Amino acid sequence: MALLERELNDVVREQKKWGNKLLEVLRGIRWLRVNSRPPWIHFEWERPIRDFDMLDLFYSFNRLAQENGTKFLFVFDEAQEFKRLKGYSLQKLMAHTYDNLNGIQMIVSGSQFGFLYDFLEVDNPRAPLYGRGMPEIRMSRLSEESAIDFLQKGFGQTGIEPSSAIIESSVKKLDGIVGWLTFFGSTSVELGACTEKTIEQTVEKGSKLALEEFRNFLKVRPKAGKRYTCILEAAARVGRASWTDLKRNLEIRGHKAIADKIFNNLLENLIKGAYLQRLEDGTYSVSDPLLAYGLTRTSPKKTNPR
C-alpha cells in the first residue's frame, strides 16, 4: 500500500495533463486524503483496516477513463509475490475489475513463471480468475541468429559498430537471454566501446545481479535455503546433472537421506522459479548462464566424501 501511495504521487507529478483530473476524482475515497501540494495523495493509515478497499480506487480510475474516452493500465510486476498476501485476495479484485470496469486493463508480469501461474490459478475452476480471457506473452530465449540480429539492430541505433566476432562471442556467453543481451548493449553504450572486456564486465555484473535475485528467492524459504543452493551449485558445476546425481550430492552435503517426494518438491520449486530447467534428455541445468557462472565462483570446492 505504501508503494501504491508513492506511485500515485509519481503519476500526479509526472502526468501534468492528468494530475488535477486524477486528484479530483480521488477526493471522495474515505481512506485517502488529497492535498493541494506534494505529497498530493496520502493514505490515512489510522483508519480501521476495513475502510481500505482497493475497489474504491479502481472505480475512481474507471470513472476518469470513461469521462475522457481512454483506458488506464495497471501493471503488477513480479506478481507471483502477491501469492504471499495474507487476508486479502488480489485475484478477486482483478476478477471484479475484469468483469465490471471497462476503463481499466491489467497486466501481470513475473520472472518466475511457475509461481506466477500458481498465483493466477487460471486452471482452477474455483479460483476467481478462472474462465477470464488472458492473452499471454512468453519471453523465451532467442535463437543464435535472432540474438545476433537483435544486437546488430540495437547497436545500429547507438552508433557503435562491434565486430562480428564480438557479437557472436557475446551471444554464446549470454545464451540468447534478452535481458542479458540488453544489459550487454547498455554496458557497451555506457563505456563507449564494445570489446571482449565489455563482455567480461557484463558477465561479472550480471552474475552478481542474478545471485542477488536468487538470494531474494531464498529469503522467503529460509528452512530449505541451503538445499536449494546445494542443488543449483551442483548443476552449475557440471552443466548437466541427472536426478540421481543431484539427489546424491545433496544427501552427501547434508549428511542425511532425503525422501524422493521432498527432493522432487525442491526441484519443482526451482523450476517454477526459472532457476533450474529440465532438459529433453531428463537431465537438469541452471537456466541462466550468468547465475551458473556466479554459483561456480561462490560455491565451495568439491571434496570427496569419506
Structure description:
- The chain has 306 residues and is mainly alpha-helical.
- Helix content is 55%, strand content 7%.
- The protein folds into 3 domains: 2-120, P-loop containing nucleotide triphosphate hydrolases (Rossmann fold); 144-194; 215-298, Arc Repressor Mutant, subunit A.
- The protein is built from 13 helices and 6 strands.
- It has a two-stranded antiparallel sheet with strand order 1-2. The protein has a two-stranded parallel ribbon with strand order 3-4. The chain has a two-stranded antiparallel sheet with strand order 5-6.
- β3 (72-76), α4 and β4 form a beta-alpha-beta unit.
- α1 (2-14) packs across α2, α6 (144-156) packs across α7 and α10 (225-238) crosses α11.
- The radius of gyration is 24 Å and the shape is globular.
- The N and C termini lie far apart (53 Å).
Q: What is the number of helices? A: 13
Classify the beta-strand content into a percent band.
5-15%
Number of folding domains? 3
Question: Unreliable stretches, pLDDT < 50, 5 or more residues?
Answer: 302-306
The SSE string, one letter per element, is: HHEEHEHEHHHHHHHHEEH
Please estimate the helix content: 40-55%
CATH superfamily of the largest domain: P-loop containing nucleotide triphosphate hydrolases
Give the averaged pLDDT, no decimals.
Answer: 91
